Amino acid sequence: MVTVSRYPDLAHLLDDAAANFASVIADREAHVVLTGGGAGIGVLEKLRDMDLDWSRVHVYFGDERNVSVDHEDSNEGQARRALLDHVNIPADNIHGYGLGDGRDMDEAARTYASILPERFDLHLLGMGGEGHINSLFPHTAALLEDTAKVVAVSDSPKPPAERVTLTLPAVHSADRVWLLVAGAEKVEAAEKVMAGADWKAWPAAGAQGREETVLYYAA
User: Fold this and answer.
1) Which of 95, 102, 166, 192 could form a disulfide with 170 if both were Cys (CB 3.0 to 4.6 A apart)?
2) What is the fold of 3-193+211-217?
3) Is 55 helix (H, G, I), strand (E, B) or coil?
4) For residues 47 and 14, is the Cβ–Cβ distance under 8 A?
5) DSSP string for residues in 124-159
6) Which of 126, 120, 117, 47 lies closest to 89, judged by CA?
7) How far apart are the first and last CA of the chain?
8) Do the beta carbons of residue 33 and residue 124 sit within 8 Å?
9) Containing H/E element for 179?
10) Is the peptide bond preceding residue 160 cis, with omega within 30 degrees of 0?
11) What is the pLDDT along the chain (219 residues), one digit of tens a residue?
C-alpha cells in the first residue's frame, strides 16, 4: 500500500524528502538508488547544502541512457553536478553503468546486476506523465521482466532509445521506495498510483518497497 504525502508546492516536497533522505543515511552504511527528473535532482541539490557524512553511503542509478557520463542527458552526470561532486563520498561508492563508449548494452546490464546489493535501503523514483519509472514504460518487455534486476532497453518510447534500467524486481528489493512527483501533467498518473491501478498500464503503480512505499506529491 502506498502512503501519500501531499505538499502545496514543489519546494515543500523537496525540503521534506531531503530531510527524510538524510535520516535514512545518517550514521550507517546505506545503499540508495538515485533518480533524475526535476524533483529527483531537486532533492539532490537540497542534500548538497546539508552537513552529512557520505563516507558510508553507496549510490546507484535507477537507469541510464547510452551516453557518456559527461553528456547532458546522463543521469549519473546530472547527479554528480547536483550533489556527488560536492560531498565527501568516496569515488568507489558511486556505482555507474559505464555507458557511452560503445559497450554492449546487455553486457553492461549483466555487469551492473553483479554489483548490486541484496537490498537497497532506499530507491528514489521519478515518474513520467504516463506513469513510467526508471526506463520501465507501459506494456514493455522491460516492465514485464520478473527475474533479472537489470535489463538493456533498445526501444525506449522516450528518446534516447538505448538505455539500461533497474527492473521491478530491483525496485522491490528496496526497503523504502519513494516516488517524487510534481506537476499538473502527472495528476492522472498519480491518481492511478493512489488507486492501485494496473501496473502494466501504469508502471509506477507496481513500485512497492519491502517496508514502505511513499508518494511525495505536489500537484
Assistant:
1) 166
2) Rossmann fold (3.40.50)
3) coil
4) no
5) EE---TT--BTTB-TT-HHHH--S-SEEEES--SSS
6) 47
7) 20
8) yes
9) strand 174-182
10) yes
11) 899 999 999 999 999 999 999 999 999 999 999 999 999 999 999 999 999 999 999 999 999 999 999 999 999 999 999 999 999 999 999 999 999 888 899 999 999 999 999 999 999 999 999 999 999 999 999 999 999 999 999 999 999 999 999 999 999 999 999 999 999 999 999 999 999 999 999 999 999 999 999 999 998
pTM of the complete model: 0.97
- Asked whether the beta carbons of 124 and 62 are under 8 A apart, the reply is yes
Domain ranges of the chain: 3-193+211-217
Identity at 69, one-letter amino acid code: V
Residue found by looking up cell 521519478 in the block: 126
